[in-house]
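Database export, one record per block. Field names are fixed; values are copied verbatim from the stored entry.
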Amino acid sequence: MAEARIDKWLWAARIFKTRTIAAEACKKGRISIGGSYLKASRMIKPGDVIQVKKPPITYSFKVLQAIEKRVGAKLVPEVMENVTTPDQYELLEMSKVSGFIDRAKGTGRPTKKDRRSMEDFTAPEFIGDFDFDDEE
């Protein structure tokens, strides 16, 4: 039965852009099979279901072929099957909808629209309506 290193397979199946990033994800505990975290050197075989954490969601992929050479994007469906549950995609949509409030640190400056809506949100509405000097 064909086997492949998990880091090579993740790169070959186009889940990660480089093999280095795939190996790093393994080291950081973002790759698991059945709840157990994997080292980059772990061998996988067809039939394994791999969970890949890419915040905010966890993708699940079923291995159809154990390959170590990168394939074209059109051939990816022959190599793996995306078995990610729909509720994970709902999490992704929710994070997109939440917008600037949950802006991740380091994602750049707010746009003009973001700044204006933040100012509207934080601006006191009744400034000048109160007169504290006339207390007797």
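Remark 1: The mean pLDDT is 83.
Remark 2: The chain has one domain: 4-124.
End of record.
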